[in-house]
Amino acid sequence: MIVHLEGITRRFGDIVAVDSLSLDVPPGVVYGLLGPNGAGKTTTLRILLGILKPDAGEVKLMGEPVNVETLSRVGYLPEERGLYPKEKVLEVLIYLGELKGLSSAEARTRALSLLEEFGLKDRAGSKIEELSKGMQQKLQFISVLLHDPELLILDEPFSGLDPINSELLRKRVMEERARGKTVIFSTHILEQAEKMCDYVALISRGRKVVDGKLSEIKARYGKRTIKVEFEGEGDVIKEVPHSSLRLYERFAEIETDLDVNQVIKYLVDRVKIHKIERTEPSLSQIYITLVGGEGENLDNNQV
Amino acid sequence: MKTWIITKFELKRVVRKKWFIISTLLTPLFVILYASFPALLGKFANRERTLGIIDPTGRIVEEIERVGKGEKFEIPLKVRRLSSLEEGFSLLRKKELDAVLKVPEDIFSSRKATLYMRNVGDVTFLSVIKERLNKIIQRDQLRKIGLKEEVLKEILAGVKIETLKVEKGKVKKETMESSFTLYMIFSLLLFMGLIGYGQILLRRVLEDKRFRVVEILYSSARPMEVFAGKLLGVGLAGILQLLFWLFLGLAGYFYASTYLPQFRLPGFMSKFVIFLLFFFAGFFLYSTIFLTVGSIVESEEEAQHLLGPIMMMISLPFALSFILFMTPDNWIKVALSYFPYTAPFFMMMRAIISSPSAVEIGISLLLVFLASVVSVWISARIFRVGMLHSGARPTISQLISWVKEG
């Protein structure tokens, strides 16, 4: 395991941010740490980076307790990110590279080649504040990749990204995985995770709800889900016998033991059905099934 | 070493900035101006004045120029004989005269005269005229009694006082002015160093916190290394600047004292060393205050709010030291020269004007040093947690728990 957390608890005053959390991240995977805002994702990431000490529990990074040497093999992108606005791009990158154990010359070479790769080479001498927001975001990915880390830890990496950078980051994450690197990222956008992750952990109020291989989780919690796209009075759908229901203006996900034909019988002549199909449950749905109403806080439509 | 990487980066960031280069070059000029201000002021006060006199007796005009001549602190005076007040006023308007003195015929008995001045605030001028008139009248009366000219001279001669300092039982030739100038320069450098670099440190730390760079730093180096790197990086920039100034100052001093012996200050080098020791010891004591403030606030405004009372705390001893400079050693001065936050100013002052023993200086220095160590220790512990803290400003009890926790 590249990351092993065992029974981690962390309090801030009276608030328990993380509550006896255990996680195992195997090497070479994309691992999603999922949950609504305030679930304890950032605190968990900070603990596994040694930024915060847990009140209880054990943290192992690459088989060892967190130390400066193991941290030099980790790249970290914090959630609210920024770099020194008044300083020059290349100089800041060299500095961050040196902090991760590169020599000044290595850091320079790496920084220049990454700047070129991300189309920022001609901005190497600019002050960071002179870059556009999109460019600054690219610069931040570069700072994570500088020392070619074995493990990338990205806290809400997609928040605030424009679609182009979002896609760029997604591609880069998949490339890193293809090169045998491990990526852990946190997000409250479950669709994003669903597209990218091999493994996920769903957390709520500092506690783990479920974790494991995404495909296994889906199989385990894969209830019979029917998706309907419709037009008309949605309340009718509530009459379909179901174990759980997500109802939107023109769309519904129904977990039910009925099959498609039986559902159609309930709905036909009452709403206009555009499309109806049996599907795998979405992560959001699993989350809601497991934690109830709290899952409604998930911003499902953000992507 | 991560500390060294951070130190290097922070040092480079400060040293390369335009304002750093400008302030490094301009400050010596400023200090020279500041230090020479009293002398400059004196020069303005001592410029030559032109006095028009309407004198029916004819004796005042004759004597007033002569009376003050050769006396050290007298101002040069030019006298013009006038026939009427109108003539005087028109010359005043043309700025050819600074004042018009109208002497009545019976001045030697009535002892009254009228002075029309262009600038009524010119107190120096007024007192000079008064003093000279007094002398002329006194001389006249003494002459009437029948005293001879030689006796008169003796009676009316002023007193001259030479100030000498006794150090370790030996008399040293040293004037109040040169000691004061030296203290002014040293204390100004100390004050600017402590406040100026403290402010930079505060801004740097705040920036790390606001832009969350601290998380990247903390995930690369231990918090202690980050703390030390910041403190040393900014500190070294300050020390480099100071060394440049001191080099200039020393060169200037040696040049001046070689060619102009009146500038020679006995024991200059030992005072210089005392200044350096207190500067270094005091630097960490003060800069950790700024660093701590930077690590517990969220914005520049909030920082300035908290800094208000702290700046008062630092400025007060600085300002107070000028008031207390003139007083002989007393218990307040001695106490302040041992209290770590004021010791750098007050022990330096005492070393310059009175002669505290090496043991006294040593104890004071040791106290400042110990306070610095404690201050660095507390500040580092608050920094560690504070840098990640967001939301409401921590309460005192929270700060205490951070210190305990660290």
Approximate helicity band of chain A: 25-40%
Q: What is the count of distinct domains of chain B?
A: 2
Radius of gyration of chain A, whole Å: 22 Å
Shape of chain A: globular
Give a short account of the largest sheet of chain B.
Answer: 4 strands, mixed
| Count of distinct structural domains of chain A | 2
**Helix count from the secondary structure assignment of chain A:** 10
**Oligomeric description of these chains:** heterodimer
| Share of helix of chain B, binned | 55-70%
Under CATH at level 1, the class of the largest domain in chain A stands as: Alpha Beta
Description:
The complex is a heterodimer of chains A (303) and B (406). Chain A is α/β, with parallel strands linked by helices and 303 residues long. In chain A, β1 (3-12) and β2 form a beta hairpin. Chain A is globular. Helices cover 32% and strands 28% of the residues of chain A. Chain A folds into two domains: 3-218, Rossmann fold, CATH 3.40.50; 223-279, Alpha-Beta Plaits (2-Layer Sandwich), CATH 3.30.70. Residues 299-303 of chain A have low confidence and may be disordered. Chain A has helices spanning 41-48, 68-71, 89-99, 104-117, 133-145, 163-178, 190-196, 214-221, 260-267, 283-291, and strands spanning 3-12, 15-25, 30-34, 56-61, 74-77, 151-155, 182-187, 199-204, 207-213, 225-231, 244-247, 251-255, 272-279. Chain A contains ten helices and 13 strands. The two termini of chain B are 22 Å apart. A four-stranded mixed sheet of chain B has the order 2-1-3-4, with helices on both faces. Chain B has a two-stranded antiparallel sheet with strand order 5-6. The mean pLDDT of chain B is 83. Chain B contains 17 helices and six strands. The longest helix of chain B is centred in the middle third of the chain and has 37 residues, at 223-259. In chain B, α11 packs antiparallel against α16 (358-386). Chain B has helices at residues 2-15, 18-35, 37-45, 59-67, 85-93, 107-110, 123-145, 149-156, 176-210, 213-218, 223-259, 268-296, 300-325, 331-336, 343-353, 358-386, 396-405, and strands spanning 49-54, 77-81, 99-102, 114-117, 164-167, 170-173. With 406 residues, chain B is an alpha/beta fold. Chain B has two domains: 2-35 and 172-405, no CATH class; 46-161, D-Maltodextrin-Binding Protein, domain 2. Chain B is 70% helix and 7% strand. Chains A and B meet through α3 of A and α1 and α10 of B.
